[in-house]
Amino acid sequence: MKRFVKGFIVLIIVMVVLAGCGGSEETGGDSGSGVSAKIGVISYITGPGAAYGEAITSALELAQKEINAEGEVHIELVIEDSAGTPDQALSAAQKLINSENVTAIIGPTLSTEMEVVGPIADQNGVPILGTSTTAQGIPEIGDYVFRDSIPESLAIPASVQKAVEKLGVKKVAIMYGNDDVFTKAGYDSMKQAAEDLGLEIVTTQTFQKGQSDYKAQLTEIKDLAPDLILCSALYNEGAVIMKQARDIGIDVPFVGGNGFNSPQVIEIAGDAANGLIVATPWFTGNESEKVQEFVTAYKEEYGKEPDQFAAQAYDGLYIVAEALKKAGEADRDKLRDALAETKDFEGVLGTISFDEEGDVVMDPIVLTIQDGAFGIYE
Ligand code: 1QQ
Question: What's the pLDDT band for 33 if we cut at 50, 70, 90?
Fold first, then answer.
């Protein structure tokens, strides 16, 4: 009987010790053979912009698989859906920070969401990396906020400048969504770029998310006969705008921001998408070995080519993995410091460094849609 009790106590002690080990792995820590970390993801997985989130989470899962196979870092992803809304993004962030105890967050997808989530992550000392948030001021939210996506303030002037060079543009019309942080930021950059290049802005029209009829705005634009339309929209509104523009006989090119740089625009607008000009660090036709390896692996896994949102997410997780190696453990503050030191990281987007604000430094290329496909605008 005594022996039995003793054996029982030993068994309990062993179980408690084992449970303790399991627990420390779950919240991140040193797994012995490298750093093990839980990374939260907030992504736009359901709703009208779900293709953005699909590309992002697909690429994150691919990167996770590759990184874990390499063995130096082990990443567990905890993926939450924001449905493209700040409220849901905030609940997701609170869950990831407080219940899941993640070491860092990737996302959310939209700047409109990041404006709400960024300050919460920052106040809680949780590093947060936007891989698609492009409005002005995102990295400035705080020391824990980073992004590897090209800001509108860089992308828009590059596209407008190229269109002016190639087409001799003098008059532009601007159209933008006035209920979203990203589309408003895009508008600011469009207005600035037009002014800097001495272009005449013949009219500025606005719309809202989910709007289905743009005839009133487009008719006014048509009457003023601009040489180019600058349109700041997410793909679901942007594609419909292009379609309705072509339907009423507007055939001038469009310059769009990051939201327009999605295969969804071609999917929804068809031929009407021809003539769209965007600036991006990502092009699947890039012949670099790293890019082609990623394109092949992504295609094998998901049966389609990765878009800009996939590429930015893919590099994003690798940047976090590199920083975890440098940090040496799954510690939020150490990871933040390591992320801030990101310099000359070689990714599929090219060479990435963060400036002193945590913003990305990169050069975009300009693409245009012709015959139903994105190609280099030259
Ligand atoms: C932002 C964006 C969108 C296009 C992401 C999908 O750039 O909200 O900042």
Answer: low
Beta bridge partners of 80: 42
207 CA distance to ligand 1 centroid (A)? 17
Three-state SS across 77-94? EEEEECCCCHHHHHHHHH
Tell which residue, 214, 220, 230, 233, has the closest CA to residue 171. Answer: 230
CA of 182 to the centre of ligand 1 (A): 6
- In this structure, the dihedral spanned by the alpha carbons of residues 273, 375, 370 and 267, taken in order and rounded to 10 degrees, is -40
Residue 376 forms part of a structural domain: no
Share of the chain above pLDDT 90, in %: 89
What is the domain count for the chain?
Answer: 2
Q: How far is the CA of 43 from the centre of ligand 1 (A)?
A: 11
Are 250 and 323 in a shared domain? no
Atom number, ligand 1, closest to the C-alpha of residue 149: 7
Q: What is the CATH number of the domain that holds 314?
A: 3.40.50.2300
169 lines ligand 1 (CB under 6 A): no
- Our answer on whether the CB atom of 284 is closer than 6 Å to any ligand 1 atom is no
Residue 110 Cβ contacting ligand 1 at under 6 Å: yes
Contact predicate 108/114, CB 8 Å: yes
pTM value? 0.91
State which of 280, 307, 324 marks the end of a domain: 280
Residue 377, in any domain of the structure: no
Q: Ligand 1 atom closest to Cα of 180?
A: 8
In the numeric block, the tokens 């949102």 are attached to 309
Examine residue 136 and state whether it is found in any structural domain, yes or no: yes
Q: Is the CB of 259 under 6 A from ligand 1?
A: yes
Q: Whose CA is nearest to atom 8 of ligand 1?
A: 110
Assess whether the C-beta atom of 132 lies below 6 angstroms from ligand 1.
Answer: yes
Domain housing 340: 34-150+288-361
Is there a contact between 72 and 109 (Cβ–Cβ < 8 Å)?
A: no
Report yes or no on 165 lying in a domain.
Answer: yes
Predicted confidence (pLDDT) per residue in 107-147, tens digit: 999 999 999 999 999 999 999 999 999 999 999 999 999 99
* Cα 85 to ligand 1 centroid, rounded to whole Å: 12
Same domain, 176 and 210: yes
